Amino acid sequence: MNIFDYSIISFFNQFAQRSVQFDQLVLLISDNVLLKGGFILALFCYAWFKEDSFKIVQRNREYILITILASSVGIVGARLLVLSLPFRLRPLHNPEIALQFPLKRDFLEGWSSFPSDHAILFFTLATGLFFVSRILGSIAIAHAIFVISLPRIYLGLHYPTDILAGALIGIGVALLVNRRKISSRITKLPMRLLDKNPSLFYSCFFVVDFEIAEMFNSLRNIAKVIFSLLSSFT
What we know:
This protein has 234 residues and is mostly helical. It has one domain (3-102, 110-232). It is built from 11 helices and no strands. The chain has helices spanning 3-13, 20-31, 34-49, 54-84, 117-132, 134-154, 160-177, 180-186, 188-196, 198-213, 217-232. The longest helix is centred in the first third of the chain and has 31 residues, at 54-84. The mean pLDDT is 86.
């Protein structure tokens, strides 16, 4: 492990297991769907329905749509990236790190830590929201840092470089897809569906937002069961 990662992890670790209440608070923040995905998507809902001129509303909704779509694809790409890159033990499981973490040693055992899919998802969302509103984007970036990223370092789930890599990927994806030539083409069909059949649009929009809020855990569980069933027949 490099000195950059170790120095930061060591700094945070000096506060670990000193207060049961504080450790439980960090665990709550790190694991609670409402505080993570629920909060950021509430910001998106506010931005979506915020009243303004027709032209600005349409533009902002294009930014929101492309960001939501990019983050959905990005989280799938993040898992593929994690699986394709060399396996990296999480700090929690690394025997070379003589530190004590609040979590049990078997938590997420066998899951590679690099890069952080949480960082990829939430920095994509935060950067995309910045195109809509600097205030909302700043809140979202602060949320991605203090609610999403730092607790995962404190708990030993990620190295700082895992977070930095994920953040850079997420920011890069959001900057790329929010270029006007790209976003207007990709969002053309969803925006047309919104005009012609808003009931169907918002039904689909809800499902996608719900999956983002819970980090696609429902789809992951369904995929695992399907894969297990298919494997039993081979």
